[in-house]
């Protein structure tokens, strides 16, 4: 009995130590993202893939896993919550891109082309390296090989694809056999509409447009633009809002199939966290209707350019 008690106390001590190191790792990830994509030169600053996005993914991942752990402790553990937050913290720590020129009605626009796939692979490797470093610093195994595998799987599963029929983002590496952590992180990554509603999804739309279109604001304010060119730029902004409406609708359509990847006993709990799709759709529809009557300058103001 005494040996069992000591073993339990040791497990609790290691668990507490592990949680502290995970919190440290999350802060390190956020610090790295801020240094790379917020505090550098203007061209390197990212309006979407920054600490605000990462914090939101950590928050949504934690909400999903904590709710599941509370209601289904035999299936989802506090350790899943801890590791899920760590994976969410590192899922976008690497954001390489190259400039890509696009010609639009005689106007040259420079867009960011992200290194999709490679970014997630390098983010996963940085997460693994941090786990090994924390083991070395503590001089004991806080994180094991299985932890690395779970975190790597979760980050790689955030690699996006696009469904041309539904005009929305998918994550084809997520399967029914994926870990609970992977399913939570991936849903959280693109889950702002379902979990938080229209305002959050609109902010995502605006920030992503800002990030992807490097010289859009400077180009749109040129005094030598023709009316036709102004219309082209105006339609790009309006089209971004319309695309976000399609994105939300597509996510709502795909959600039941993604929900089915969870064990049956967990599905109702997960679904209870994704109740804002309809409100998000209505919000974006209203904005699109209003924006269809706005001038280029009014749209630039709305997009915070």
What is the count of structural domains? 1
The parts where pLDDT drops under 50 for at least 5 residues are 5-10
Nearest-integer average pLDDT: 95
Give the name of the CATH architecture. Answer: Orthogonal Bundle
Keywords:
single chain, 305 residues, mainly alpha, Catalytic domain of cyclic nucleotide phosphodiesterase 4b2b, two-stranded antiparallel sheet, two-stranded antiparallel ribbon, 7% strand, globular
Would you write up a description of this structure?
The chain is mainly α. The protein has one domain (about 1-300): Catalytic domain of cyclic nucleotide phosphodiesterase 4b2b, CATH 1.10.1300. Helices cover about 65% and strands about 5% of the residues. It contains 13 helices and 4 strands. The protein has a two-stranded antiparallel sheet with strand order 1-2. The protein has a two-stranded antiparallel sheet with strand order 3-4. A hairpin with a 2-residue loop joins strand 1 (about 95-105) and strand 2 (about 105-115). Helix 10 (about 225-260) packs antiparallel against helix 12 (about 275-290). It is globular. The termini are far apart. The relative contact order is 0.12. Mean pLDDT is about 95; it is low at about 5-10.
């Amino acid at each position: 009995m005494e040996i069992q008690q000591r073993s339990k106390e040791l497990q609790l001590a290691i668990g507490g130590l592990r949680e502290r190191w995970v919190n440290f790792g999350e802060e390190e990830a956020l610090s790295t993202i801020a240094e790379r994509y917020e505090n550098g030169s203007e061209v390197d600053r990212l309006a979407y893939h920054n600490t605000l996005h990462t914090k939101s993914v950590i928050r949504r991942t934690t909400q999903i896993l904590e709710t599941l752990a509370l209601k289904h402790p035999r299936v989802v553990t506090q350790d899943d919550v801890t590791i899920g937050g760590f994976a969410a913290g590192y899922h976008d720590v690497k954001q390489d891109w190259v400039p890509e020129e696009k010609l639009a009605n005689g106007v040259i626009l420079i867009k960011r082309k992200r290194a999709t796939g490679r970014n997630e692979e390098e983010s996963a490797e940085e997460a693994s390296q941090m786990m090994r470093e924390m083991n070395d610093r503590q001089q004991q195994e806080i994180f094991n090989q299985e932890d690395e595998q779970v975190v790597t799987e979760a980050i790689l599963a955030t690699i996006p694809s696009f469904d041309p029929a539904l005009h929305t983002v998918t994550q084809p590496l997520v399967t029914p056999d994926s870990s609970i952590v992977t399913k939570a992180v991936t849903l959280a990554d693109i889950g702002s509409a379902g979990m938080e509603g229209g305002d959050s999804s609109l902010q995502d739309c605006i920030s992503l447009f800002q990030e992807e279109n490097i010289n859009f604001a400077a180009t749109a304010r040129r005094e030598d633009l023709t009316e036709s060119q102004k219309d082209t730029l105006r339609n790009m902004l309006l089209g971004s809002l319309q695309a976000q409406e399609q994105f939300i609708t597509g996510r709502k359509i795909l959600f039941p199939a993604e929900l089915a990847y969870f064990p049956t006993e967990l599905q109702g709990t997960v679904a209870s966290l994704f109740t804002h799709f309809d409100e998000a759709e209505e919000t974006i529809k209203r904005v699109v209707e209003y924006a269809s009557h706005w001038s280029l300058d009014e749209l630039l103001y709305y997009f915070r350019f």
